[in-house]
Amino acid sequence: MKLEVNQGKLSGVLIFQPPVFRDDRGFFQETHHNEKYREAGIAAPFVQDNFSFSKQGVLRGLHYQEQHPQGKLVYAIAGAIFDVAVDIRPGSPTFGQWEGYLLNDENRHQLFIPAGFAHGFVVLSETAAVMYKCTDLYRPEDDRGIIWNDPEIGIDWPVESPLLSPKDAALPSLAQASTCVVEP
Asked: C-alpha angle 45/111/174, rounded to 5°?
């Protein structure tokens, strides 16, 4: 079996379907292979891995870094999330547009969100364990965000009243936020 890759509707967003080898013992999946992922379109190396665990209804995002944007390869180890990418590249023909995908421990898909996009997800299952690989290091002083329910973006979240951190609840709209330095 080979790594299946599909282009998202927004330029640079990729959906990976790595092969999963299942038997009566469980399964095996290769979650990253530098050469295969580079050939599929991820040019930058991954330099940091992040892990989050959240309960149902938690929405994390929409986050990005302004001066040191991160590309992210996201996947749900356990549970289910609705994962969203928003194009915030100045001058992009798809600026302010979004796309979202179901990532879960059954489909085992991965979503690559390139640098220049804001990222967020909401937990659909009782709990979810999420891993993501980043193409740049996290810098707290460079951390930015956009409010999850910005009507200008119009994300069709599968929740009405998510659980938000105080920080995420106070994020500005896209029109009020600074944008990423990455050009399309």
From this structure: 95
Does the active-site annotation cover 63? yes
Q: Where are the beta strands (DSSP E) in the chain?
A: 4-7, 14-17, 20-23, 26-29, 48-55, 59-65, 72-78, 80-87, 98-104, 110-113, 117-123, 127-134, 143-145
- The active-site residue, picked from 37, 64, 101, 132, is 132
- Which amino acid appears at position 134 of this protein? C
Is 132 in the active site?
A: yes
- Write down the catalytic residue from 63, 64, 75, 109: 63
Task: State the DSSP code for 71.
Answer: -
Is residue 65 scored above 80 in pLDDT? yes
Instruction: Express each pLDDT in 100-120 by its tens digit.
Output: 999 999 999 999 999 999 999
Q: How many CB atoms lie within 10 A of CB 70?
A: 28
4-169, what's its fold?
A: Jelly Rolls (2.60.120)
107, 95 Cβ separation under 8 angstroms: no
Q: Could you tell me which residues are beta bridge partners of residue 48?
A: 134
Pick from 52, 48, 90: nearest CA to 72 = 48
pTM: 0.94
List phi, psi (to 5°) of 141: -70, -15
pLDDT at 182: 74
